[in-house]
Design a protein that fits this description.
The chain is of the alpha+beta class. The chain folds into 2 domains: 87 residues, Arc Repressor Mutant, subunit A (Orthogonal Bundle); 43 residues, Dna Ligase, domain 1, CATH 3.30.1490. Strands 4-3-5 form a 3-stranded mixed beta sheet. Strands 1-2 form a two-stranded antiparallel ribbon. The longest helix is centred in the first third of the chain and has 17 residues. The chain is globular and about 50 Å long.
Length: 141
Amino acid sequence: MKEQDIDDRMKDVLEKLSEKELRMTPQRILISKTILAMVKNHSSLKEIYDETQKVLPRVGMSTVYNTIKMLESLKIIDTFDIDGKMRIDQTFPHINIYCRNEDSIIDVDGQAIEEIKQVLSKYGINVDVKKILIDGKCNNY
């Protein structure tokens, strides 16, 4: 995410915290900026913690986790688990494809979700899906 985008998202975070009358410490601001900078990569809690340690070496894993959960509750980010690891994600509708052989995650745009919903509706299944996680092996994506 670009620096300007991160700053814009931080303004959104601060506004939402103010609406809920919650306090944002300087430490949480720095952690939040790190999370927002890493969200497109579907980073894990450990990866975010390691990156945070470069700026705030005394921050605890629980503070990073709690900041992630706070941002999730404000609908700034989403999270999902793969193999017991929490990953952060963007909030727009899309499909996450976990390439097990590469240990990477790629996004497929939300239009594919609409197509899946249309197929399911033909079978009388109506779903309200915002995200789909597909686990597989990827070849030369």
